Amino acid sequence: MINADSMQVYDTLRVLTARPSVEDMQGIPHYLYGHVPAGGDYSTGAWLRDMEVLLKRLEAEGRVPVIVGGTGLYFKALTEGLAAMPPVPAEIRAKWREALAEEGATALHAQLLAIDPVMGGRLSPSDGQRIVRALELFEASGRSIADFQAENPPPLIDAANADKIVVLPERPVLHARINRRFETMLEAGAVEEVEALLALDLDPAAPVMRAIGVKEIAAMLSGEMSRTEVIEKASAATRQYAKRQMTWFRNQMGPEWKRLDPARG
Questions:
Q1: Between the CA atoms of 188, 194, 197 and 203, what dihedral angle is there, to the nearest 10 degrees?
Q2: Fold exhibited by the domain 90-149
């Protein structure tokens, strides 16, 4: 079992990111779960490089991988290829993260449109993370991400020879599960996880700090929000994320992906 969820790679927030429990992993080898330090950067490219090493090893051992997760871009890169991007110096990365925190995504999107209209036109003005990525790469290399994407290498997996399934539950069923999910997480140790995460004093722009529930639980710990409000707001954020995720799956994963409603089997 191989993880394809961008939040489950971190070595913290096991409960809050719904990583498999120790009991779930008994008897079945699991890979790429919790292997990245909480403050680390872990891109789609980094995941793909880890996947390349892992897939070669599993093939040599005669084992068939099952790749599971909700980060659609990981699957797209796996089956369609991903261009190699040059490294970005830490000072450039820090500069644009700080700019995002101070100026906001919309202002940075305007800057991106001015220097790289191709990527500016592709990205939503609210997509701060990808806008920053486009800006920092342009400054570091003088080239647009679009240029690198046009140089895609062959994919790691031949999609024609893989069983491809996307799980699309009915919306009422999904929402009912989401509404129960966050309260269960609080009872299972999510509060303690966020306390431990905050104690690391990470950059607020670090990817792990954007996990759904972190800012809500942090607000509860500081006395700014009640437990009931935390559950309501985090559940609403999860529903919004699920909506975006389902829209992405429907639009980006073509008819070769089998649609599965878990209620119908």
A1: 150
A2: Histone, subunit A (1.10.20)
CATH class for the domain made up of 2-84+153-165: alpha beta
Q: What are phi and psi of 39, to 5 degrees?
A: -90, 5
Tell me the one-letter amino acid at 210: R
Q: Where in the chain is the domain with CATH 3.40.50.300?
A: 2-84+153-165
Rg of the Cα atoms in the chain: 19
Mean pLDDT throughout 122-146? 93
70 Cβ contact list (under 8 Å, min separation 6): 4, 5, 245
What is the enclosing helix (H) or strand (E) of 186? helix 171-187
pLDDT tens-digit readout, 208-261: 999 999 999 999 999 999 999 999 999 999 999 999 888 888 888 888 889 888
Q: Is the pLDDT of residue 37 over 90?
A: yes
Segment holding 258, helix H or strand E:
strand 258-260
Place of tokens 């009915």: 170
Do residues 83 and 150 lie in contact, with contact meaning Cβ atoms separated by under 8 Å? yes
